[in-house]
Amino acid sequence: MLPEDADRATLLARVFDPEAGGPCVAAVRGDRLVDLTRVAPTTADLLERADAAEVARSAPAGRAWPLAEVVGNALARRFDRPHLLAPCDIQVIKACGVTYARSLLERVIEERAKGDPSRAAEVRLQVQQAIGGAIADLVPGSADAARVKRILQAEGLWSQYLEVGIGPDAEVFTKAPVLSAVGLGAEIGVPRDSTWNNPEPELVLAVTSRGEAVAATLGNDVNLRDVEGRSALLLPKAKDNNASCAVGPFLRLFDAEFGIADVRAATIALHITGTDGFVLDGHSSVERISRDPLELVGHAMGDHHQYPDGIMLFTGTEFAPTEDRDEPGMGFTHRLGDVVRISSPRLGTLVNRVAHSESAPPWTFGVRALMTNLAARGLLDDTR
């Protein structure tokens, strides 16, 4: 689950400790996870510090857990033992959509197919022939993009997805409530009534209240294509369901070994294995993103919108599965028990198993529970 250069990485995690009845902020140091909760009760607190990387590497720590044991508990879903949680906590979870040309085309296809997967193959051919080449190399918001928009509008081919894909304004939405993201090993959820859905493997930036990207991790922006395809106004229903947002396994803090240049060069790989023997591989290359990751941060927050606890920002995906799983022309959709692995060499691997949102463990540990727990542990005392 670790990055390939873990010995040089500054990695932050959250560990659920049954003895404390709540989460602990922890750093990876060698083969151990060390407790930094007395230094920073939340990851948001730690990320706000200018010396966050140094604190993670060398601040005096409390107790420690064997790293392999905590990771193993998460993967085996032994939640009565110390295990990894999503590494973010009180940050707002935001996401950007249609930030790659391929995923942009798939959103247009969903829209024109009205969420019906049986029409996707036919519509895909029509859309690719009509506009595929027109948008591949456009810079969003540029004069060339405005010219293509006028041409497509004249031909009756304009779409709300093209507007955010090549127009001046990025799509930014709230993916999930604060504290609702699941971590390594947890089930990811799709509602029982969804018949066309998929994972969205993405690079996720941790951004401070000052709008500074200070860390990166991996995320799965689980999406219901049948729901969003019916109407973009159903985006909240398509995106925000129980266990529909996975983040982790660790936050990699920016330091001398890893920074925004490495983010821009990252490749995100996806591997799905089903209980039916189905296997699917895909990837996203951040180098092909249509808007720079820091530009996306600027669209999400700034003078127009403040986030005092910071944000976790999903930056979009190039991956849009079109391979048929069942009947020809029906494309891909999840089945129960699918194991989804999202990985990047310098960020590690996030593994989750697909379940119905209705049967996945319900989200019960919210903001009130966190504050109550931290207060009971004496972690909100200003004199600590």
TrEMBL record:
Identification of the protein by name: Fumarylacetoacetate hydrolase
GO BP term, pick one: small molecule metabolic process
Keywords: Hydrolase, Metal-binding
Domain (Fumarylacetoacetase-like C-terminal) ranges: 169-354
Pfam families (alphabetical): FAA_hydrolase (PF01557)
GO molecular-function terms, A-Z: hydrolase activity; metal ion binding
Family statement: Belongs to the FAH family.
